[in-house]
Amino acid sequence: MKKTGAQIVAECLLEQGVDTAFGYPGGNVINLYDALFEYSDRIKHILTAHEQGAAHAADGYARTTGKTGVVFATSGPGATNLVTGLANAFMDSIPVVAITGNVTSSQLGRDTFQEIDIFGVTMPVTKHNFIVKNVKDLAKVLRKAFYIAASGRPGPVLVDILKDVFIATTDFETEKPKTIEPYTEKVREEDIDECVSMIEMSKRPMIMAGGGIILSNASKELYEFVKKVDSPVTQTIMGLGSFPADDPYYTGLTGMHGSKASALAVNNCDLLIAIGARFSDRVISSAAHFAKRAKIVHIDVDAAEINKNIKTHHSIVGDAKYVLEKLNSKLSPRKHTEWVNEVLEWKKQYPHIEGAENVVSPQYVIETVHDLVGDDAIIATDVGQHQIWTAQCYPFKKPRTFVTSGGLGTMGFGLGAAIGSQIGNPDKRVVLFTGDGSFHMNLNELVTANMNGLPIVIIVMNNHVLGMVRQWQKLFFDKRFSQTTLDRKTDYVKLSEAFGGVGYVIDKKEDVKPVLKKALECKVPVVIDCRIDRDVNVLPMVPSGRPIDEQVTSLD
């Protein structure tokens, strides 16, 4: 059957099971948007305020649903506005397919209006990218893009399509999508056996769970593994939710702002098993001192991660769920009572740092939100102090309930991601924790949340400063607070109302619960101006490059 290129894009989306896409129209995707009008009963399009917001929304949609997110943008600035969103998805291994339009074949390479080499621009921040110059290649490329985005280590893929390709026609036949199989080709029985042997010899094992557990849907297998090994377990920020935070084996977050118990356990274990984690600098801090008494086993789907940031003693390259199933089938239950009790004692000795009494402490707000929304809610964050307080305090118990920018650290990520999360999970409660610095970066997406009637509760931890940078200035720059005091005059209540939503203020501790309850009853977006002290710090913290158990616990 003859179809235009624009119709082929829509047909390929339907083939891949896509029913929702995010984006913003423009001259070089006008034919695509014309086709979407025709398919509007089958493909819902969410019009955002800005392409960056659309990219973050597609990212949040993917993180919380397990599906591939889809985003559209036109050429030139439309396409470049996607770059931060794509880089963000790339760093956190999130499957997104970005479809951009470009100028016509005859205009290509002539500095035409709104022309940009987005293929070249995005090459370092995508898993793969394509430019389509012939309509006969279009369906094949799109099918390949979806496969690449979701297979192995997931990531963003960009498909740039020339305008005349959208207009041209060719024969099109629907195809069944290629099944995404777990990546297991490099998993060898002898590697599994070696890992089992190392576990059997270990007297003080420690497990570190990363985002790869969530991406491969391996939480159930991780839980069985932890119990069989009889090991404490910590999580990276990307791994939060992969193991229940209320389980006695859980030692808390690891890394720069991790718990003392996690740091001590990592540096005193004799075997560290890292699964779906990439040993980022925020996790290991000083490579020379990280897990210095341990043999390290690294299980990861991406061979390029092995020995990249930390020297390991054994590795298994493959899908986390598959590898854990294999290990669980071969492991007999172990007992490490003395070691586990030692770690449990550290948990009691070094509980996470609570907020001050009788004031609006971030920790109290976060814990109260959990009390009110329960374990199924999706919690999104921006980047900064509020992000780490949330990672430290919120007791995530289920995968795909925490949405944060782990690798790139993108301020302005949160609102777009919360919108994508709510669109993908209409029956779940979505709460966004943000800071006044992060929120101002992309608050224009309030218009998207209101246009779509999304009941997202947005809690702005308002301390009138760029808190995390200020904290570093306090510690390392003799309190020279250069350009981190914001003191903006924004009225968040009026702002929310101006966009069509509701606004509240939390100014004292006794406001917290009643205001949150009122906000959660609203059927529209709510912005809460949650006023906190500018000198509340994120603690503990490890100065960059220091061993992770050398934590700073006070800045006063």
What would you say this structure looks like, in words?
The chain has 556 residues and is an alpha/beta fold. 38% of the residues lie in helices and 17% in strands. The longest helix has 16 residues, at 135-150. The N and C termini lie far apart (72 Å). The model has no long low-confidence stretch (mean pLDDT 97).
List key phrases describing it.
556 residues, alpha/beta, six-stranded parallel beta sheet, single chain, 20 strands, 23 helices
The largest β sheet comes out as: 6 strands, parallel
Low-confidence parts lasting 5 or more residues at pLDDT below 50? none
Helix content: 25-40%
Helix count from the secondary structure assignment: 23
Look at the helices and sheets and give the structural class: alpha/beta
What coarse outline follows from CA principal-axis ratios? globular
Distance between the termini: 72 Å
Number of strands: 20
Strand order of the largest sheet: 3-2-4-5-7-6
